[in-house]
Structures are given as structure tokens and as C-alpha cells.
Amino acid sequence: MSKKEKIGNITLYLDYYSGTDLYNEGDEAEEIVLNALKCGEDYLKVLSENNTWPVLYQLSPERQNIIAPMDIKRTDEVLEIGAGMGAVTGAIAKRCKHVDCIDLSKRRSIANAYRNKEYDNIDIYVGNFQDILLQKKYDVITLIGVFEYAQSFIKGDKPYELFLNQIAQLLKPGGLLYIAIENKLGLKYFAGSPEDHTGVIFKSIEGYSKLDPARTFTKSEITELLLNNGYESVYFYYPYPDYKLPSAIYSEDYLPDETLTISMKPSYNFWRDVYFDEDKANHNLIGTKEWEIFSNSFLIEAKKDLD
User: Is a pLDDT exceeding 90 seen at residue 275?
Assistant: First the structure.
């Protein structure tokens, strides 16, 4: 018999849950967010009383901006891998027929359910993506701040390649994969910002180790990964100042001009040095191919091969 719980209109499927939450952003912060979502508290009030990055990241409405350019249709079946506490789940649900969510954490999934309990087109599966047996194909799959962690939860000698191939098997022919991820050559890293996942200055520039929890990629590296592992085309968007709390999203066909005024200084969770003025450096790169190479983050649209 299937193990499941119901919160509002949403069903949480627990057959693949190990009994331990394998990912969290701090117990205190997650409990604050969960309680706020359960009680329907005003987000701005909660943020004013808890001025920390983990709480801001979960409750800021700017999180939803990242899905704006995604080609999600009203008839689409969507899979959100690493849905977390549901910061963008509701925004996806508004635009599609149905969204299935996967997350390693039961607590985070419960928070997602409370946040989005009014929707009747969301299901949540708690467990490791690699263990969950999904019975359908999807038009769109999203990895928002997830792909970089593949080496921590995908078993295999080449976890990133394996992850992409496993996702491709779940996409319909011509289906779309969206990856939001930091750029390992992001301008902020050269200017002194610690690497987002390790907190170590210059970590992504000097190189990761197998012991690191995550790794990011250059534009050319992730393009090659996608084209060699089940995808026929790749298109880049550039969220600014980054994908976490984007104020604007540019693309290969719509790049900024000299009127760009968004500050380029995101370093939400760490104290940082500032070795040069990132805003001036960013403006100096506008109009060059290097501007795209040094973008702090990418939102990548990859189209599955037409089988």
C-alpha cells in the first residue's frame, strides 16, 4: 500500500523516503519558514523579523522570476526536481496542466504543500530522484539550483552525465530541460565573492575536488555536457544579478546595453572581499562575447533529441 499524506489538495508520496532528510539549509531557518507557511503569516513580516539568507531565499517573491522565460504551456506535464519548499512550484502550476515535484526532504516537501495547498495540479514525491519510479513522460523538467549537486546524490562514476541521460529518458521527444545554475567563471568570483556552495574564495576558478558537495561549469563545459548526453540544442539566458533573486533575465538574442543599472554584487550568505567594482567591470564587458562568459548565473534551455 502506498505511503502518502494529504495537505490541502496536495498529496505527498512517501514510498521512496528514507526516513532522513538528506538536504537542508539549516534547521532553525527551515522551521521558521515551515511555521510561517503553515500559519499563513505575511512574508514581509517574517523577513523583517528573521533577516537571514536562508529565510529570504525561501520567501522572496523574486524567486519566481526565474521561470518567466520558460516555454511552459497550459497543456504541459512538468517535473520539478529539487522543488524544496515550493518557492517556484505554484508559479509553475499556474502555467501548466500538472506538476510533479521531487525533493530529498520531507520537511521541505511539507512546506511546499502548505504553501501551495490550494492547487489541485501538484503532486510531491519525497526521496532521491534516482530511486523514484515515475510512470509518465514530461514536456518540461526543471533543475533550479539542483544540477550542481549531482555528485552528491547520483550514484555512478559520471554523475552529471548520468543525471542528464536519466532526465532525457523522462522527457517526451522535443521536450525541454531548464537548468538554473551558477557560472563557475562568474564575475563576482573574480571580484572576491566566496564560491556559493563551499564558501571558499576562488574555489570554482581554481578547481573543485570530489569531496566538494557540488560543482558548477563554464558556458562551454555545460553546453558540451548537454549536447553529448541526449539533447540536440542548447539556449542560454542570463539572470541578473543571478538566478536566485533575478531582477532581469537577458538572453542570447536580447543582451543588455549601456542602460543596464542592476547592481552586480550578490553574495548573500557569506562575508566577502571586494577586489574591484563589479558594476564598472560588468559595464565594460557589455557588447562583447565575454559578457556572456562571465555572467554570474545561467538559465539554460536544452531540447531533447527528437527520437
Answer: no
Taking the C-alpha atoms of residue 268 and residue 266, their distance in angstroms, rounded to an integer, is 6
CA distance 22 to 154: 13
Output the average pLDDT for the chain.
93
Report DSSP state, residue 96.
S
* Residue 86 one-letter amino acid: G
Mean pLDDT, range 220-238, rounded to an integer: 98
pLDDT at 1 over 60: no
- The 10 Å Cβ neighbour count of residue 306 is 9
> What gap in Å lies between CA 155 and CA 248, rounded to an integer?
36
Distance of CA 15 to the CA centre of its chain: 24
Distances 252 to 210, 255, 287 between C-alpha atoms, Å: 32, 6, 12
3-class DSSP state for residue 49?
Answer: helix
pLDDT, tens only, 26-52? 888 999 999 999 988 888 899 888 888
Question: Residue 27: its pLDDT value, please?
Answer: 87
C-alpha cell at 140: 518540461
pLDDT above 90 coverage of the chain, percent: 76
Q: Which amino acid is at 135?
A: Q
Residue of 163 and 22 predicted with greater confidence: 163
Domain of 53, in residue numbers: 4-19+26-304
Q: Residue length, the chain?
A: 307
Alpha helix segments (H runs only) across 14-129: 27-39, 43-49, 53-59, 89-95, 106-115
Domain count, the chain: 1
Given a contact cutoff of 8 angstroms between Cβ atoms, the answer to whether 147 and 179 are in contact is: yes
Among candidate residues 16, 306, 302, 305, the one with its CA nearest the CA of residue 141: 302
Instruction: Say which CATH number the domain at 239 has.
Output: 3.40.50.150
